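Record pair follows.
FIRST:
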Amino acid sequence: MPYSRDRRNRVVPLSDDESLLQKRKGLFFVFEGTDGAGTTTQCRLLGEMLTGRGHQVICTREPGGTPIGERIRELVLDSRHQEMFDHTELLLYAAARAQHVKQKIRPALEAGKIVICDRFTASTIAYQSFARGIDFSVTENLNRLTAGKCIPDHTFYLRVSLTESRRRRVERKGKMDRMEGEGNDFQQKVIDGFEQIADQDNRSRSILDASQNQEALASCVLRDVLNCWPYL
């Protein structure tokens, strides 16, 4: 039987209606990590596992997730635009997120669905502040503006070394996008940034070794989800 806590912090059983209501609020999971960490793959695998358990799941990504967001993605990641200024890049990412949250993420959560996102606000801090050097107050204020109260219920930080990240990026089919093609110094700053962000994150989160194979990592992800939400 599901339980909750009353105003005196006592554990009390939930009625069937209260239990159902809790489950219909929706859940928001986010995968974060440097390029090559496997965030896209793990987002898809978790979506497949939860869908197989009978849940309504939406897998999405940043930048992107909406028609406007996908157009912005094409622009900001296009390797032909090497002249793009750092603040231009930041504002394009922010515009994509603002549309994403209002058009797709928030409505899905309000409808009781599970949303799994490949990257969110931590990526802005890691890439645009730690790596690009934009003041943290700027990126944090933009995150608050674009995401508002849309905060992940659980974030999975996937850790991988620069060597492994580079190997995976090189082995991918097709040319690298503008961010993937940045040099080793930039990529190391991103990795270091994510490590600091993860270590300082006091919300529900997992820090996982992404150097293991996809299936083993996916099992760790599902384990952590079920530890926090056994009813899933």
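SECOND:
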Amino acid sequence: MRHLPRRPARYSALAMLVCAPVAPLPAQAAPGCAADATYTTLDFWIGSWDVYVGDTLVGTNRISAVLRGCAVVEEWEDARGGRGRSLFYVEPGTDRWKQVWVTDSPRRPGGVKEKRQMAPAAGGGVRFLGEVSANGVARLDRTTLLPLPSGEVRQLIEVSDDGGTTWRAVFDARYRRRRARRRVPAAPPCRPAGRAAGPRAPPAIGAAPGHRPAAARALLPPPPARRAGRPPGAAPAGDARRR
């Protein structure tokens, strides 16, 4: 019997690695926070808003989800041009939102705030609570955001000087979504009636010199010189007969 040469062991091991079934890699979670219900708490507030106290427009506010839904940014501008910005994010290990608020007047009372999400407000609203100092006195400061059946949002800011026993409203506003403004196309330029569009035609060669531009008259050949004496066919001097 004829014996075949034996293959080295390293070739056998290589063949086992190539032919072995490959186990599928575990699916990786999609980046971002859209799939986590904790991060949808403020979805009702996202958008561009006109903000009214009663019938008075007091400012505008734009609320945007950023970082793939993992944070929310507030961009406030009041009717006099004052501005404020908030960053909302979920504190790790708490599953509760936190707000950091900064304005362009950070040294005045309320110019900088930090608030944390508290128990849900009545009616399904979201409530934040913090502490501010006014004239050296600490007071509680809470904000309630309440979605309304009309699609508007009510924002109520209250303060308490007795540790939360009683509350006093300092800002009670309604948010109304801003409507997109339609762009009106510009009208075409007007032309004098009866004049066709396009370049202006040059005057006819036979037109009277008074109706021809000076530059065109300069291009015409000079008229022929007249000979001295009587023109052909002219009547002699003193002949007044009609021919």
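COMMENT: Helices lie at 9-19, 214-219.
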